[in-house]
# Entry
Amino acid sequence: MLAFDPRRAIYSFRAATITPAVLFAAPLVSFVVDPGAVWAEYPGIFFHLSLLLLVPWLDAPVWARTAGYAWVVLDVLTGVLVINDVPHETAWPVRLAGHIFAGIWIATTSLCVEVLVIRVVGVAAGVWLFGYTFVASVLPEPALGPASVLTTAWFVLLAVLHKPVRPALS
# Structure
């Protein structure tokens, strides 16, 4: 009988970083060609769920990993709210709350990576996501766009340049 060994990864780090980058492509394009499109929530939900495979791979304090998981929960919730016709005025603040946790996770894990370009891009993406939440009432939604591009670039940079030892056990 096979026993579960938490030290053995069932998926590769590269797969855990490329999958969210690929799944986020459709929502990223929709921001430009079809802003507010409900169809983009479907791949968006799968994008966020794929992060469940990435969070344990990146070195970070437990509280930062917890923030990564909180981001997943809140953005999946937001996608489901939008798909089910919950008004934007209700769903949008939930998404923004998730971005606080996204910013914490991305920036903190980036600071734990030795590759400078990953640190810079990750901290920029994290600070942008986190900070936009507090100015969203005065800035238009497209001002969040650069954070999406930076986050996608961060996933790709992680896949190409970062070499973790193994996924974390917690």
In short: The helical segments are 13-23, 25-33, 41-54, 62-83, 88-111, 116-135, 145-161. The longest helix spans residues 88-111. The chain has one domain: 13-161.
